């Protein structure tokens, strides 16, 4: 089985499907520019595609929407990172964009 992401004219993922390899080889999916293969295990194209993700042609990667304005894109992993590391104390936190810090959930 292969996973493919359908991308629109703005390189935004609109659909993700799972198909047999013979379907891919048959050309049923149409123009290859509209369908880009994605890896469920993130073996290639950095991240598994999801609806709303962007396919970055230059990086050859799927990138999730930016979760918060203060977060920056890690160029190696193509994942968004908070400006402050998640606390490693076993507690549960959520991101607070107003303070640009993690807030403990009680």
Description of the structure:
- With 106 residues, the protein is mainly beta.
- The chain has two domains: 1-65, no CATH class; 66-106, no CATH class.
- Helices cover 6% and strands 35% of the residues.
- It contains one helix and nine strands, in the order ββαβββββββ.
- It has a three-stranded antiparallel β-sheet.
- 12% of the residues are buried.
- The model has no long low-confidence stretch (mean pLDDT 92).
In short:
The chain is mainly beta and 106 residues long.
SSE diagram, text form:
Elements: E1 2-7, E2 13-19, H1 21-26, E3 35-38, E4 54-56, E5 61-63, E6 72-74, E7 79-81, E8 93-96, E9 101-104
Antiparallel strand pairs: 1-2, 1-3, 4-5, 6-7, 8-9
The helix/strand order is EEHEEEEEEE
Give the number of helices: 1
Q: Give the strand content.
A: 25-35%
Class by helix and strand content?
A: mainly beta
Shape: elongated
Query: Total strand count, please?
Result: 9
Number of domains: 2
Which characteristics define this entry?
single chain; mainly beta; 2 domains; 3-stranded antiparallel beta sheet; 35% strand
